[in-house]
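Problem 12. The chain below contains 295 residues. Write out its predicted structure in token notation.
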Amino acid sequence: MAAKRTIPTGKGVSPPFWTPELTKLDKMVQERKNERKRDALIRWRRKVLAGTALGRWKENVAKLSATDSASWNPVKSIYAPRPLTLLLLVVDGHPPSKRKQAQALANMRMARSTKAQHAAEMKMPSTRRSTFRPITEAGLGVALRELSSGTAPGTDEIQCEELKQLGRASRRHILRLFNYSLRAGKVPAKWRQGIIVPLLKPNKPANSMASFRPVTLTSTLCKLMERIVARGVRDWIEDNLQSQRAGFRPARSTLDTLMKVTSAVRRRKDGEKTAAVFIDCARAFDSVDHGCIVK
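Solution.
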């Protein structure tokens, strides 16, 4: 509770019209002990803030141009209708309860199994495991710095900002928890639970289940350990991936693939044609057997 009261969460982006004068007034309000003088400073700060915001607005309006596409962005943000982002279903003329909507979404997703019909069962490798390498304080520090602020927590309600503010003693407790989990091959039951939130896909109707993409909010502690483990196995994975693959790999992007396609087109001889096949698997993550991928 103390952490939630004292540690700010979110990205903490300041308004674009914030000035050093407003920062100074904020500091003066916090330091002023006399209640009467403090209230007077607060009233003055509100007046300065309103004047600064109005001046910033007039400045932006003066820069608007009908031929500049960037000028239409603030206009659209004010006057454009907001698309419906909540699931809206009607059954027999009445909207179903939230529980029934959640069950319908779950039934639709479960209809496409990630287990292939004739796929072999995944088994533990018979070879000896590699030597266990415990997570170090340095590795934990790097992973903490890479955590994104302003993300939604899981069922444990632990924020990324709270983890970043932990002292050395608390970080050592987390290290012991992580290393025990990896050494024993066990994770807390809370880490295997998540909150599934359906998000509306861009430009899709809100009255269709297929228009929503489920996003699972999991434990921040679990994601922190997963980040450290992913960094540790990245070298092994890189050696087992095809060189043509660029997705989800460090220092690579779609530009690498585009360059290879462009080079293949330019290398063709006069009179020859180049053909390309593009495959987009719908719900690939839901339908591809994970065991086959690992194998």
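Discussion. The mean pLDDT is 80. Students who got a different answer should revisit the alignment rule from Section 12.3.
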